[in-house]
Every structure is written in structure tokens, then in C-alpha cells.
Design a protein that fits this description.
Distance between the termini: 24 Å
Order of helices and strands: HHHEEHEHEHEHHEEE
Number of strands: 8
Keywords: Membrane, Transmembrane, Transmembrane helix
Oligomer: single chain
Helix content: 40-55%
Number of helices: 8
Length: 218
């Protein structure tokens, strides 16, 4: 899915919403038609029943698609060793526009960005104070601080956790980790804490090109 590429399909509840939509259209709709819309009724009553059923299905579809759209990840923001999943609704809530990285179009998946704090120490302190006081959002959710991650890849790599450090605490995921190590080389795998509103985990990247290659639940 363009809106929810891996690993987001595994860590965000999009499939629950998708199956609700499937239920509404493939099960609930036909069931309501069979029970309510009796063709033996007068034509105007039959037409009314069909209209009501279609209206209910349409409302469910629009609501489901809107929920999926607002919950889609549009940025993967790196800030001080942690990747934050920034959704469409996060950006709407913060009401900010990026000065350096344009928002992805409706046909694009999330863009990886680096959160660059102001160079001026005083502005940095003010930003943190405002965040802690609750007057503004966390820096990771402020698009005006976003820069293309590819321009900061060495800085990001330096803050990643190595394969040898992660493996002992993820025995249940040893098979997945071993397969990734065989494919990319264990020395090329880096791990970062990944946070979104629904869950936490560890994002796995290939340090050579920054490609996302996997996800570990906490």
C-alpha cells in the first residue's frame, strides 16, 4: 500500500479499518438488502430502502477512507536518535508548513526527514521550554524544522544501535535478524527506537543507503 508501506502496515491499525470496510460492503450491505429491500414492496418503498442501504454504505466508506487518510504516515522524522511517525492528522493539528521538505502528494508514501534544531542556543532553549510547557508540539512534529534525511545520513548512522547490541534482547526475533544479516551484512544493519501514537518498536535500516529493511516490536 502506498500510504502504508512496510513496516507501517505491521505497526499501525490500518488493516482493522480495512476489514471493517470489507465487512460493511461484502457482508453488511448484502445482508441489509436481503432483509429490508423486498422487491414485492411498492416501488417507491423498495427504492427508498435501497437508497437508505446505499447511503449507509457510502457514509461508512467515506468515514473509513478519511480515517485511513488522516492516520497515514507522511513523515518519518529523526530527532536525537529516535524516529517518530508523523501522520497527516499530526500535521493538521500542528498547522505547520515545511520550509524545506514538501509534504508528499496523495500518491506518495512517507518521506524520511531530519529534525534540525535552530543553531542559536537561545532559540533551542526556547523551543524546548515551549514544548515542555505544552504551548507547542514536540520538535519532531514541526515541519519547519525538517530537512532531507539523505543530507544527514552520517549523523543518523552515528546514533544507530548495532546488530550485536540488539540481538541479545530480541531472542524471539532471532530468525528475522539472522535473515537480514545474511542479506545485508550484520555490520550494515542499524537499529533505532521508533515511536508513533499506537506503539513503539525498533526500526531497522541499511546504513549504506538509509533504506528501511525491517521492524521489531518492543
Amino acid at each position: 500500500m502506498t500510504w502504508y508501506p512496510k513496516p507501517f502496515t505491521n505497526m499501525m491499525p490500518v488493516w482493522k479499518i480495512f476489514w471493517v470496510l470489507v465487512f460493511v460492503y461484502l457482508i453488511l450491505g448484502p445482508s441489509m438488502t436481503a432483509i429490508i429491500a423486498n422487491p414485492r414492496k411498492p416501488r417507491h418503498q423498495f427504492a427508498r430502502d435501497i437508497f437508505i442501504i446505499i447511503l449507509i454504505q457510502t457514509i461508512g466508506l467515506v468515514g473509513g477512507v478519511r480515517t485511513i487518510y488522516l492516520g497515514r504516515p507522511i513523515y518519518l522524522a529523526f530527532d536525537t536518535g529516535i524516529f517518530y511517525v508523523v501522520t497527516q492528522s499530526d500535521i493538521i493539528a500542528n498547522n505547520n508548513e515545511s520550509h524545506d521538505v514538501a509534504m508528499p502528494s496523495i500518491f506518495q508514501g512517507p518521506i524520511s526527514v531530519y529534525v534540525e534544531l535552530p543553531e542559536d542556543a537561545k532559540k533551542q532553549i526556547e523551543l524546548v521550554k515551549d514544548w515542555l510547557s505544552g504551548s507547542i508540539g514536540q520538535p519532531a512534529y514541526k515541519p519547519e524544522l525538517y530537512r532531507l534525511l539523505s543530507n544527514y545520513q552520517d549523523t543518523v548512522n552515528a546514533q544507530g544501535m548495532t546488530f550485536d547490541k540488539i540481538l541479545p534482547s530480541h531472542n524471539d526475533d532471532s530468525f528475522q535478524l539472522e535473515q537480514l544479516a545474511l542479506k545485508y551484512g550484520s555490520n550494515n544493519l542499524l537499529f533505532y527506537l521508533l515511536i508513533n501514537s499506537n506503539s513503539k518498536g525498533k526500526l531497522i535500516t541499511n546504513k549504506i543507503n538509509g533504506e528501511i529493511v525491517g521492524f521489531l516490536p518492543n
